Amino acid sequence: xxxxxxxxxxxxxxxxxxxxxxxxxxxxxxxxxxxxxxxxxxxxxxxxxxxxxxxxxxxxxxxxxxxxxxxxxxxxxxxxxxxxxxxxxxxxxxxxxxxxxxxxxxxxxxxxxxxxxxxxxxxxxxxxxxxxxxxxxxxxxxxxxxxxxxxxxxxxxxxxxxxxxxxxxxxxxxxxxx
Length: 178
Ligand code: HEC
Prior knowledge:
By secondary structure, this protein is mainly alpha-helical. The chain has a domain at about 60-175: Cytochrome c-like domain (Cytochrome Bc1 Complex, Chain D, domain 2). The protein is built from eight helices and four strands; from the N terminus they run ααααααββββαα. The protein has helices at about 1-20, 50-55, 60-75, 85-90, 105-110, 115-120, 145-160, 170-175; strands at about 125, 130, 135, 140. A hairpin with a 2-residue loop joins strand 2 (about 130) and strand 3 (about 135). The protein is elongated and about 90 Å long. The relative contact order is 0.15. It binds heme C.
């Protein structure tokens, strides 16, 4: 028995010694996993890129509805290049006195398209008084917004939160840019 055991050990070890080391097959390089392509979401209609001829051909109520829709999005997101007006002037248009003036009920600075457009284009700083409260802050200029976006956000402000000051058109903004 003992010798058989020894023999088998010998055989085993001899085998082990003679067996040429198998070259380790190089691991297959991991194939880069193709990232699953997300389904292309339908490109959201860029409201500011509404074809001017299409807009011009709309009846007045449709023009207003279009401006209100684009305007709400500019007010809440800043549109293509602007700052979301909502951050400072608040969702209710009530502002944050005494830092940011209200837009609700503020006809002095908003009732006229050109005045309102110039505030958006050039920004506003220096002391002003709105509804009996003094402000002396800085509103950054946002003239990089398109004429359509500016007309729209102005129209939105002039017709929200109880305001009823009428529509401003892209042509009014062109005139305000001077
Ligand atoms: C970073 C904060 C901020 C943002 C964003 C901002 N405003 Fe203003 N806005 C102000 C401040 C501050 C004033 C007052 C400036 C002053 O004291 O002279 C003002 C004033 C105004 C006024 C005139 C005052 C009034 O209430 O009658 C209008 C109109 C106005 N902003 C419209 C807008 C519109 C439209 C947008 C977005 C396109 C916008 N603002 C974004 C801070 C902001």
